[in-house]
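[Discussion] Sanity-checking designs against the backbone

I'm trying to build intuition for which residues belong where. Below is a structure token string of 285 positions. I'd appreciate it if someone posts a full sequence so I can compare it with mine line by line.
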């Protein structure tokens, strides 16, 4: 099948006898197969939040090329293009609908405190606990209405589960909290943003390393003068950072932090003075 040949030619190790399977995600350091691919339908999703959509978007993200370049690449390999998008959700026009988040509010699991979070900070974000002692984090639109949630599981893979039907490409986690400020940090995950906010930095999260065109517009319309890229310290974060810069740098002031190699993400920086230094010494692209 054409898609199987394309993926194999790109160096993606996939089984050749199945139309649907899971592999180690090529966009982050993956210990377990968290990337699901259906070559018959031409779709993919990373359950750790790297992205989802058509296999055309997968090719573009993997090869770090534009939609037109993806189109030319696929045409050369015998796949006809009807629509080439970096995010299949970008062509949807459904409205985000308000939901009721199913958890016990006013309480959070004790194990989350081992990561340095405070109860007050977590409750300020509306977090709660479910029946399995998992942390539940509500996701709001810019009007502050809950449109979904993410569950941070304890001792289970995948660590993060998103509510069914949540259109991650249409929201900026934490966007409803941003007021006029000098700069806003951009992270991948909810806890990254909560951690920065707890320590005095305005922040939003993309809910993954991939920025959609809708999120791009949401970012450039935030009431701030500068966007600071704080994605994870891995290959997926690097690719995501480069895309943000390429898309936004002509419209907005873009800077980025440089995490020491021993840190995977900003949550790992527990020393507040060091975190402040990392933010203060950010680099203009």
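Best answer:
Here's mine. Compare freely.
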């Amino acid at each position: 099948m054409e898609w199987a040949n394309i993926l194999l030619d790109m160096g993606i190790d996939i089984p050749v006898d199945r139309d649907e399977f899971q592999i180690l995600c090529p966009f982050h350091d993956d210990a377990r197969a968290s990337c699901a691919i259906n070559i018959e339908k031409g779709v993919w999703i990373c359950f750790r939040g790297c992205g989802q959509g058509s296999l055309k978007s997968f090719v573009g993200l993997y090869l770090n090329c534009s939609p037109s370049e993806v189109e030319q690449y696929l045409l050369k390999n015998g796949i006809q293009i009807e629509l080439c998008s970096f995010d299949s959700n970008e062509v949807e026009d459904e409205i985000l609908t308000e939901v009721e988040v199913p958890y016990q509010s006013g309480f959070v699991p004790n194990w989350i405190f081992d990561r340095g979070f405070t109860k007050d900070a977590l409750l300020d974000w509306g977090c709660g606990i479910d029946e399995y002692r998992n942390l539940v984090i509500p996701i709001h639109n810019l009007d502050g209405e809950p449109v979904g949630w993410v569950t941070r599981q304890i001792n289970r893979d995948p660590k993060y589960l998103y509510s069914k039907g949540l259109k991650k490409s249409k929201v900026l986690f934490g966007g409803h909290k941003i007021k006029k400020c000098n700069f806003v940090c951009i992270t991948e995950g909810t806890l990254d943003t909560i951690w920065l906010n707890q320590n005095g930095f305005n922040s939003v999260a993309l809910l993954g390393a991939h920025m959609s065109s809708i999120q791009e517009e949401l970012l450039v319309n935030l009431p701030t003068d500068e966007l600071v890229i704080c994605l994870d310290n891995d290959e997926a974060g690097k690719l995501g950072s480069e895309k943000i810069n390429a898309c936004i740098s002509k419209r907005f002031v873009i800077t980025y932090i440089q995490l020491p190699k021993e840190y995977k993400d900003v949550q790992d920086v527990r020393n507040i003075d060091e975190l402040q230094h990392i933010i203060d010494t950010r680099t203009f692209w």
